[in-house]
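Iron-sulfur cluster-binding protein, Rieske family, pasting as requested.
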Amino acid sequence: MNTDSIWKEESGKCPVFKPLERDIETEVLIIGGGITGLTIATLLNDAGIHSVLAEASHIGNGTTGMSSCHLTTQIDAQYRKIYKDFGEKITELVARSRAEGIDFIEQLIKSKNINCDFKRVTGYQYADRPEQIADLEAEYRYAGYVDLPVELTDNIDLPFSVTKALKFGNQAVFNAQSFINGLAEHLVNSKCEIFENTRVTDIREDRGIFTVSANGKIIRALKVVMATHIPLFFNVLQTLAFPYMSYVIAATIEGDTPGNLYWDMDEPYHYIRSTEFNGRKYLIVGGADHKVGHVEETSKRFTELESYARKKFNVKSVDFKWSAEFFESADGLPFIGESPFSKKLYVATGFAGDGLVYGPLAALIISDLIQGKTNRYYDAYDSTRITIAASMADFFKENIDNVRSLVADKFGNVSEQSPDHLEPGEGKILNLNGEKVAVAKDANGEVYAVSPVCTHLKCNVHYNNAEQTWDCPCHGSRFSIDGSVVYGPAVDPLEKKEIVVVAEDKK
Ligand SMILES: Cc1cc2nc3c(=O)[nH]c(=O)nc-3n(C[C@H](O)[C@H](O)[C@H](O)COP(=O)(O)OP(=O)(O)OC[C@H]3O[C@@H](n4cnc5c(N)ncnc54)[C@H](O)[C@@H]3O)c2cc1C
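Structure tokens follow.
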């Protein structure tokens, strides 16, 4: 079974960029080579502005390459909630900006001649239980107020019956990895210098100049964009954007795969779409989201998606399964613009499951800010906004979860077992000689021991058995079993620990 996304093969077609091996100066440093970073780099390059893009791993290695590649005007937060909390003007801005965001991606694909299977499709949000109809009708009213092309319908091209659906016109699908590969190709020998395998580990701002450390070298920049999905180091936005894991499977089915986008109204919701890859048609089913580090048996989320797919389609085989992380904002809208504490540091976070549109939109807004231009969508996403009324309930719920994680994990959730009892693929926090150690065994039986204390803000990490990573429930940092950083705001690895393991044959 392949646990990379179905699009990952495309990452091999991206140009390869060298790591940073010298000190360098630039006007703008962009940290992160996902859809947000690459689109900002493209816009700045087109405007003649010199930039450096530093990517910790390789282009698309973050959530962009692990997404499900649909582009919708509909948002995870739902228009009825945004309307209630922010009113008509902001709701209209969100709806219009998302429609224009999809148009912008389409134009970029045409103008740069990028081959990434972009296609316009219809989106259906469907109720499959009568008690969901009231919410669906409310969504219709609010999405209609702000002039999205929506209609209620009983006709939906799925092989199972649904109670009612809301039909969104002019949505799209594409291959996000191929899209950013295409952007990267245009940036070779441009005003943007890209460095891969270049993890930023420190940033200081002094008298208008940023001094940034990466690979033991220094990058000096007048402006910095954190296109890292969640800001690095400590940033107040980490208390307003909460980390979630989301799961996807790609399966081959008997008969035709459905041709549009479909999502239900469950909590968490499921979505269905299809794609063609290497001449084969696949059904894609995703969802089953949960807060990072809050579920023990993460691999069961794949089983859940598979049984959902099997109930609705005649599945022949599940060929790919993958999971990745997103960040949901406290009030349902992303934070895009200046960082709350620095006018020359820019952030883009809280995209929820909608970041393939919000990322390019963030690029448009941030590149305008960098050039001193106004952007008409800034008000909807202003990263310095105080929307406590709208976000209060989620803010308290999510941050109390974090406090619980800190307190509960420091004193509980620890096994007294010896590391010899771990199965391949298993990981546990063990109490070894009075010290808590995060111990995991890989598929070959090799045992790794690291400190369970997250290097970001000192919460305890939890084992994720689907990905075999240590995940932090507080702010979403993720580490591989050898302690190296996989994702999230942390920049330093988990501390390695020496432990004694009794070899199998000596037991
Ligand atoms: C399973 C799943 C499916 C999704 N499907 C969709 C979808 O169909 N449609 C949609 O609109 N949205 C979807 N989303 C959301 C969307 O994929 C993300 O919001 C979007 O990809 C975020 O892009 P990004 O460029 O901001 O972040 P990323 O793609 O995560 O890129 C951030 C980059 O920063 C790099 N980085 C991190 N730290 C450092 C550092 N210290 N130094 C240097 N580089 C660093 C990382 O390596 C990474 O490459 C999905 C999310 C998930 C989890």
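Note for the archive: Residues 31-37, 54-57, 61-64, 66-70, 199-200, 227-229, 232, 246, 248, 324-326, 351, 353-357, 359, 491 surround flavin-adenine dinucleotide (CB under 6 Å).
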